[in-house]
Amino acid sequence: MSAPQFTVTRNPAPASPQRRAEVLANPGFGRYFTDHMVTVGWTEGSGWQDPQVVPYGPLSLDPATMLLHYGQEIFEGLKAYRQADGSIATFRPDANAARFAGSARRMAMAELPEDLFLASLSELLAVDSEWVPAAGGEDSLYLRPFMIATEVGLGVRPSAEYLYSVIASPAGPYFADGVAPMDVWLETEYTRAAMGGTGTAKCGGNYAASLLPQSVGAQHGCAQVAYLDAEERTWIDEMGANNLFFVFRDAAGAVELATPDLRGSVLAGITRDSLLTVARDLGITVTERRISGQEWLGGAASGVLTEVFGCGTAAVITPIGTVKHTGGEVTIGDGRPGPVTLQLREALTAMQRGSAPDPHGWMHTMVPAPATV
Ligand code: PLP
Ligand code: COI
Question: Does an H or E element contain 112, and which?
Fold first, then answer.
């Protein structure tokens, strides 16, 4: 597809500047949405068509729409950050575009071309630019591209029609306590994904399946669940909405930053990938390897494991204070955010808000700075 031409229909009743300011003062996560959204259709034979920015509003679906029965749905999550010069940038949106296409392949859905994915973000941001929070802090506009099967019918087969959409939501911290350490539930009964399953795709069904273990974790006061591999129930995969990193420190003080290797059941997080590079740039020894639940619990108890954190777009880097499981609980280090966690968090967020150099070309300007007169 050559440069996609979007038609823009302005919302006749957008939020007032006062209402928008109220929302931006305390956005939370995923609670409020901007005035517009993107829609692009796909049908077998005609391909992608009719890219539009339209007023935010409900979708109308026939009750027999395939999405509602067999769950063909995928999504992405990325953030738009206001830069000091007033421009709006996103972080590695090309990586989200590639992962979205990979998720579509796994779910037998139509693949959205990367240029259309990127254009959909910049078109929405141009229209809803005033919803992007002020520069300098950690608040952002969270973008949620998603795709659903829209063919009507009950046959179990890939839909011949899809709707791609993007909505946007001003975002503060994903976890209510921000950078305060969270407690995590190490789940030994339920698994998140098996080899050959859908764990590497960002499909809604993975999150539906995580809700029961998440509520088990919540009963134990935990904000997230860490999953073991489905085959041996031994190896750490990841959490429900975050990848995991572990900081080991040997007797001589040498530091290893370790994260589970991607195997075939872990979501390839873009934050994870970026942190591997940022850490190497900072001279930290990095490994991608198998880490067992026992190594986590035993290392925390003996003191060789000094820090653990979760990472993802929504949560950025969130330290883990205590890991709980059916057999008890262990606090990691002194239970407070550790130095490696904080150093990496600062390095990443500084790049994202434009206050540190961007040696890897990760920031993409989506909306230029307003012209100065
Ligand atoms: N793992 C899961 C299951 C997720 O939902 C997410 C969130 O997107 C991540 C990991 C982190 O991925 P990313 O860093 O690309 O946001
Ligand atoms: C993200 O970090 O973007 C996520 O998708 C996590 C969660 C909100 C599903």
Answer: none
Cβ of 224 below 6 Å from ligand 2:
no
Please report the pLDDT score of residue 263 as a whole number: 85
Please write the tens of the pLDDT for every residue from 307-336. Answer: 999 999 998 999 999 999 999 999 999 999
Confidence at residue 175, expressed as pLDDT on a 0 to 100 scale:
66
Question: Residue 41 forms beta bridges with which residues?
Answer: 49, 163
Q: How far apart are CA 137 and CA 83, in angstroms?
A: 10
Give domain 7-171's CATH number out of 3.10.20.310, 3.40.50.2300, 3.30.470.10, 3.40.50.720: 3.30.470.10
Span 182-337: which CATH code? 3.20.10.10
Contact 288, 317 (CB under 8 A): no
Q: Would you list the DSSP string of 141-196?
A: EEEEEEEEE--B---SS--SEEEEEEEEEEES-SSTTTTS-EEEEEESS--S--TT
Q: Which amino acid is residue 9, in one-letter code?
A: T
Atom of ligand 1 nearest to the CA of 273: 14
- pLDDT surpasses 70 at 2: no
Q: Which residue's structure tokens are 């990760």?
A: 362
Task: Evaluate if pTM is beyond 0.90.
Answer: yes
Q: What is the pLDDT of residues 31-63, one digit of tens each?
A: 999 999 999 999 999 999 999 999 999 999 999
What ligand has the least distance to the C-alpha of 91? 1
CA atoms within 13 A on the CB side of 360: 14
Q: Where are the domains of the chain?
A: 7-171, 182-337
Angle between helices 270-281 and 93-106 (to 10 degrees): 140
Task: Retrieve residue 297's tokens.
Answer: 């619990």
Nearest-5° Cα angle at 81, 16 to 146:
80
Q: How far apart are CA 43 and CA 190, in angstroms?
A: 37
What region does 265 belong to: left with phi over 0, alpha with psi -120 to 50, or beta? alpha
Tally Cβ neighbours within 10 Å of residue 299: 21
- Which ligand 1 atom lies nearest to the CA of residue 78? 16
The best mutation among 106, 267, 345, 352 to test binding of ligand 1, ranked by most ligand atoms within 8 Å of the C-beta, falls on 267
Q: Among the atoms of ligand 2, which is closest to the Cα of residue 312?
A: 2
